[in-house]
User: What shape does this take?
Amino acid sequence: MQEAMWEFRPGTSEPLKHRMTGEVRSLKNSESRLLLLLLTHSHRTVTKDEIHNFAWPGKVVSDDSITRAISTLRTALGDSAAQQKIIRTAPKSGYFIIGNHVVLIEETPQATIKPVSSRTQKNKLRVGLLLTCLGFILVNVFLFNFLFMPSGNSDQYMLSRIISGNTQFMVESDDLVSLELMSNLSHKKRSQPVDFYITSNQARIYVSCVLRTPEAKRRNSLNFSIDIDNPLEYISNEIHQQCQ
Assistant: This one.
């Protein structure tokens, strides 16, 4: 997996941080929402209408506002309209983000623990850690369905889960392609814990992988899709490489 240059923490006062230099940069709320939209839909072009509705909800703005926001984001990320090495323009359509130059960071706040007996404190820590892990899994399943499932499909999804070493897979029980892919991926060795959420339709296979750090306070997520017409082994190797 390509090493990301920037960390993006939406909702903070300085959402962008360069991983090598430690330099931080601030963004306006609309610019931060625009970058979040591009990152969570990195598998496709985001239209101008989608940008209007998400970055400026309930407001009427011109396309010039989008152009200025994109220009500000490119400058903040060390990109430009001439280079377009991170954010690219789809003429007369919208914009899309390429590569893994920017990683979306989700932080779990530490709980405040009152002084109690040693045994009670340990029990509370265990329960808190369990609830945090369960909550994180549920949130990612919800986000994955929200980002990738076709709109208007309100059916309930029955998920199958398999745990192989330090890796966890979750797919729809009736999705035969994803089940076969999960079986293939479960035999591949990984150097760090990864959670996979996989689904497919007639054209694409959609993957969300979450890399779990040892301290369990920060998780790096990556969402992408692959053409379903590719051979299974090729798709499996591509997912394994992207999610290392």
Observations:
- The helical segments are 29-40, 48-55, 63-76, 118-148, 176-185, 232-242.
